[in-house]
Amino acid sequence: MKINLTTTFADQLGGKIKNGEEQLTMGDVITSALLTPMKEDDKLSGEEKAELFNIWFDQIKDKKEADLKPEQVVKIKERIGKAYAQIIVGQSFKILN
To answer: 34: closest CA among 76, 85, 90, 65?
Structure first.
């Protein structure tokens, strides 16, 4: 599944959601979801943690488009669902479905 990593996000009023001074992109959201430690991550094996890193390194880092396998999309959606509020989750899932 091809994903445009430069897609940006809007708030509930249609305004731009920022990531610092720049607009928040799908690439930013996926990067954060894959690389930011979460409470449950202490239960992950080293292999599982490396798999999250490898998805980011191989598919997301420094790219404008990702070509994701279905199982990678499932992992990314799971992480985004835990890491973000509804406004980001909803828009991300529409992109990833």
So the answer is: 76
Secondary structure class of 8 (helix, strand, coil) = strand
57 residue type, one letter = F
47's enclosing H/E stretch is helix 46-55
Contacts of 38 (CB under 8 A, 6+ apart): 79, 82, 83
Alpha-carbon Rg for the chain, nearest whole angstrom, is 13
Domain boundaries, the chain: 2-96
Amino acid 82: pLDDT: 96
Q: Where are the beta strands (DSSP E) in 1-57?
A: 2-4, 18-19, 22-23
pLDDT tens for the chain, 97 residues long, are 999 999 999 999 999 999 899 999 999 999 999 999 999 999 999 999 999 999 999 999 999 999 999 999 999 999 999 999 999 999 999 999 9
